[in-house]
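STRUCTURE:
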């Protein structure tokens, strides 16, 4: 098989035909992911070794080559027994009603074939398995707790020195009206829409990125790093992009960024995630977002669990405690950043 064929890769794996032995890999009880985290992750990685060969091969190809869309959807994975009657947590915190860990095992087992799970201290208390649910105070906010406003396209934690290579979204429950789509766009589709001069500019460090709301920022655009939007191979680049938090530093750079934004809106696609769907996103090649939906706060709203994956744990070792997966990189406060900018410096973080 040629690399070009591999690079196309598959986008969807139907897991509904798993045999009993495979389903049991996800269902059989094991260590507690919240109290015995490392044991749980080791156990999941060993279980993943026994997954069907075609699934392991598809995950390996996705890890190595990505694919045309930068996504891989596993449809119909096992879910926790009694999930139909388990209420969506009211806040983005751990569900007290969910006492089994099948969804966590799906995330950890699949994630282990792509790399290693990590979390960030500023997000959801550093949970490795984060509950994304709509909350009343955040309906119009650009964050995973929003709902009534479209979540704009972004690379996850684009401002962070240890942003994840992969993002995993496991759907425990779609929204009531089945309208919410997880949207995505790959740079592989956007790049051909850009002119040569626009590409040149986007490869230059001419773009300032704000710090995400979930990392404590309430006044966007003053305290993030200056980055190029495109980096890596000229013909097949990676990208840093955040529709909400990124600005060009010159008029020409801003025009190129606007051309990129239009390109994303011309090519993006959407998926309505269903219960048991696990969507893997290549965070370096594909930006994602979400369409609007209407929450009801009745205990059965949309419920997604999210995990982050890095290829090399060693790169963040200096910002983690020994034996922990929580990345603790500290960022400058807005006041500190403003003072640094006024003094002509770029102040990114305090650790
Ligand atoms: Fe996101």
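SEQUENCE:
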């Amino acid at each position: 098989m040629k690399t070009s064929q591999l690079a196309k890769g598959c986008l969807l794996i139907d897991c509904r035909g798993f045999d009993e032995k495979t389903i049991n890999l996800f269902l059989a009880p094991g260590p507690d992911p919240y109290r015995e985290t490392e044991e749980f992750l080791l156990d999941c990685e060993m279980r993943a070794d026994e997954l069907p060969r075609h699934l392991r091969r598809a995950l390996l190809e996705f890890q190595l080559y990505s694919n045309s869309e930068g996504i891989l959807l596993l449809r119909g994975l096992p879910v926790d027994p009694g999930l139909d009657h388990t209420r969506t947590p009211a806040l983005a915190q751990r569900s007290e009603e969910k006492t089994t860990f099948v969804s966590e095992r799906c995330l950890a087992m699949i994630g282990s074939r792509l790399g290693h799970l990590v979390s960030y201290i500023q997000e959801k208390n550093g949970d490795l398995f984060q509950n994304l649910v709509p909350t009343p105070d955040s309906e119009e906010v650009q964050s995973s707790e929003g709902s009534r406003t479209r979540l704009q396209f972004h690379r996850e934690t684009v401002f962070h020195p240890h942003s994840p290579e992969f993002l995993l979204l496991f759907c425990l429950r779609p929204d009531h009206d089945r309208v919410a789509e997880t949207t995505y766009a790959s740079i592989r589709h956007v790049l051909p829409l850009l002119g040569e001069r626009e590409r040149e500019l986007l490869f230059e460090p001419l773009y300032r990125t704000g710090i995400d709301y979930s990392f404590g920022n309430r006044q966007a655009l003053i305290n993030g790093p200056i980055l190029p939007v495109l980096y890596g191979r000229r013909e097949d680049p990676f990208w840093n992009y955040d529709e909400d938090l990124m600005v060009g530093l010159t008029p020409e750079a801003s025009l190129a960024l606007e051309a990129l934004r239009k390109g994303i809106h011309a090519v993006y696609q959407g998926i309505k995630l269903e219960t048991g769907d696990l969507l893997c996103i290549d965070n370096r090649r594909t930006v994602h977002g979400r369409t609007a939906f209407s929450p009801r706060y009745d205990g059965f709203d949309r419920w997604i669990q999210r995990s982050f994956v890095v290829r090399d744990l060693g790169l963040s070792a200096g910002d983690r405690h020994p034996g922990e997966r929580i990345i603790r990189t500290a960022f400058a406060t807005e006041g500190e950043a403003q003072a640094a900018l006024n003094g002509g410096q770029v102040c990114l973080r305090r650790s």
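REMARK: The first strand starts at residue 12 and ends at 14.
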